[in-house]
Amino acid sequence: AMEKSYKSMFLLLVAISCALAKDAGKKDTKETTAKPKLPQTLSRGWGDQLIWTQTYEEALFRAKHSQKPLMIIHHLEDCPHSQALKKVFAEHKDIQKLAEKFVLLNLVYETTDKNLAPDGQYVPRVLFIDPSLTVRADITGRYSNRLYAYEPSDISLLYSNMQKALKLLKTEL
Predict the structure, then answer these.
(1) CB within 8 A of 137, min separation 6: which ones?
(2) Which positions carry the signal peptide feature in this UniProt record (predicted)?
């Protein structure tokens, strides 16, 4: 177990040094005058311009009080399927725009809330929770054996499911 934590620390350091090098090379563009950005650790690459919550508890609190739906992405850094989905998600302009209407959380660990694993603890999986704090088990992907899984080729389905989560909100509240 010790070996594994050393390894992840090392990966973290590598990631931090890459990020620093990248920022150093940036010219002062008009981006710097935009609203101050939080450190982008919470996005984990799913959308650095978006506001991500830090914990499940914080996400639930925000969803309830802002009356926005919550989108939770379970993923793992060393899972190729998670990485592939993350890449298309982050590069999909419409999804990134629509995501601003959600409370957002991405998790690389499982919570103790069994409602977040209606059909198992696999990654990547994406679940929507409405402001009444109900998991929308009815918003699913295309795979019957992993209802909340999305492949990169399913990105337009994920987009329409995001739209569905917002639409349900309007009709029910």
Answers:
(1) 118, 147
(2) 1-21
Q: Which fold has domain 56-166?
A: Glutaredoxin (3.40.30)
| Dist CA 47 CA 141 (whole Å) | 21
Residues 63-120 have pLDDT tens digits of 999 999 999 999 999 999 999 999 999 999 999 999 999 999 999 999 999 999 999 9
Reduced to 3 states, what is the DSSP secondary structure of residue 67?
Answer: coil
The closest alpha carbon to 125, from 112, 98, 143, 99, belongs to 143
Is residue 169 within a helix (H) or strand (E), and if so which, with residue range? helix 155-172
The continuous run of DSSP H or E covering 71 comes out as: strand 70-74
Confidence at residue 77, expressed as pLDDT on a 0 to 100 scale:
92
Taking the model in full, what pTM does it have?
Answer: 0.75
Name the 3-class secondary structure at 98: helix
**Domain ranges in the chain?**
56-166
Angle at the Cα of 113 from the Cα atoms of 166 and 65, rounded to 5 degrees: 40
